[in-house]
Amino acid sequence: MFTAAIITGLGLGSMYALLALGFHLTYVVSRTVNFAQGSAMMVGAVLGYTLCINWGWSLWLALPLTLILCGLYGLVIERWLVRPFHSRGSQAWLMATVAGGILVDNLALFTFGKEPRQFESSLVNLNIELFGSNVGALQLLIPLAGAAIALALYLVRRYTRLGKVLEACVQNPRAAMLMGINVNRVVAIAFAVSTLFAGVAGLLIAPLFSVNAEMGMLFGLKAFAVAILGGITSAGGVFTAGLLFGLTEALITLYFGSAFTQIFTFALVIVALAIRPNGLFGSQALVKV
Amino acid sequence: MATRLPNLQRLLFPVAAAVTLNMAVFGGAQASEPPIKVGLVAALSGQSAKSGEALTRGLTMAINEVNASGGVLGRPLELVRRDDESNPSKGILAARELVQREKVAVLFGGLDTPVSLAIVPLVNQMKVPFMGIWAAGTKITENGAADNYVFRVSAVDELVDEALVKYGVDNGMKKPGMILINNPWGESNEAGFKRALEKRGMPNAGVERIQDSDLDVVPQLTRLKNAGADTLLLVGNVSPSAQVVKSLDRMGWDVPVVSHWGPAGGRFGELAGPNASRVHFIQTYVFTENNGAKGDALLAALKTAYPQIKTLADVTPAVGIANAYDALHLTAQAIEKAGSTDGKAVRDGFYAINEYDGLIKHYTQPFTPSKHDALGPDDYLFTHVVNDQIVPLKPEE
Q: Has this prediction a pTM greater than 0.90?
């Protein structure tokens, strides 16, 4: 039973980690975050459901299109809800992205419908015996997919030209601009990738959960807590914090009961941040004087 | 002049048509009398929107029948709806607006116990009868007010809990585990379950909480299993209830599940998967192939009024439709007995109702000053979901 709780925790944690990596990515590039991350996750699940179940498209056609549309959603957010405010030094992007997320949630409520729906997948009913516990195959796939995406992000940043461009923007956007790098485009790509990650999380979670217009709200909030806990400037830190958060939730529920899950988990977050104000793996930003 | 007469004749047709339509809409009621407004404050959007739709359908069908037979006090009834979005503060605002601006004679409530509990003090203070037609929280009608204006044609948590525990015991339950939604509805039922178990000197395997956002409830269920639970007592809306079934499947734990009526609130068959039928839950009414004369007539009228209803699977949640339908007819009788729409007179009018042959049952003096709930444990039936349809359980099941 301990194994089942660990798998549950790792699955949940990977979801938080994928959303939180989105927060990390936009923050390091532009010092802004997209508070519509939760809604992007919902968009992934709802679009996947609509294309696969309602329209009967093949999974191999529906999934890439869903992810492309999720990426476009990120571009729209950056272009219309972040750039106009951020370029003038205003912090209004914060409220604009919150509002954008609520708007899209309500649009989904209006178009997709008010009832939760089930994204059926043959993987859901496939159980594997692992250390004496029955574990769903999809539950195992989620942390693996999460880890693979985090690894891909690391490799892209470390070894590709795009990664070097991104790194230049992270280290000194002004110098990068003077070197001929189109910083606005890099920021837009960061937003597109962040909502794409959220879309992947939505698609992975949909068969285990139910698809509904309000599914992303709480996940988005918890993922932001994870991003802060991990130290938003550290990709590895954010991913590890996501897994820790999910595992903590599952183990507290197993050993202390579900009445204490949220109380203990968030109390631990507060204690961790009191001890390490920049997050578990973050470092204090250098201020040049 | 010779040319004006044909024009007048041409005008006569639309005028006659309009008058006929007016008569048809208001039936035999005197069209010159202003309508008596009744209000509905319920979730018309969000995840519980389907419940609001069912309540609207039940009320509308009954209003059509009342109006077709001459209305109440010679006046037609008119339904005014407001969306509470399952939010207590929005519910209070909507209730106040309906009472003060729309001047509704009676207010009907929706699915959410927290919203109804928030409206109760307001209606008691403003002396406007409030009829609960879904929310089952015990304290809605048993609210402790000296002058109580709150009535209900629906299940009552405390009585449901007793009925669920009795059903479990009849089916061999010795040590149940409780898995409850983490909100006031879950709390209300926890108290009810514990009272029903204490009465029988029966131990329990613990209480676990679930919520709408729970992806997996294996840890909660594992605790109950390790504590020796032989039956699960479940209280939750459709999504979390479905998560319980899916998690049980994953664990391979074949345990009986006895539930409050949450699974009736949406597409439980689809959400919970092939083992949805393992959850046995209570209802006050279900439409079947054979519903008796009244039920069949209502089903036919529903199909005519709402063409999207094609099969029995489309008339869910039936409890919402049936509770609303009977409650509206009882309300019409109460206003008739009161002889006016004055709040206190209508409240006393409810006490004066002797008989009503309703959809759910034959009501005999449904309300007295000490009894504001028209339905009791004998009116509950146990059902489960088979092929997306809620069907009554046969005794051997």
A: no
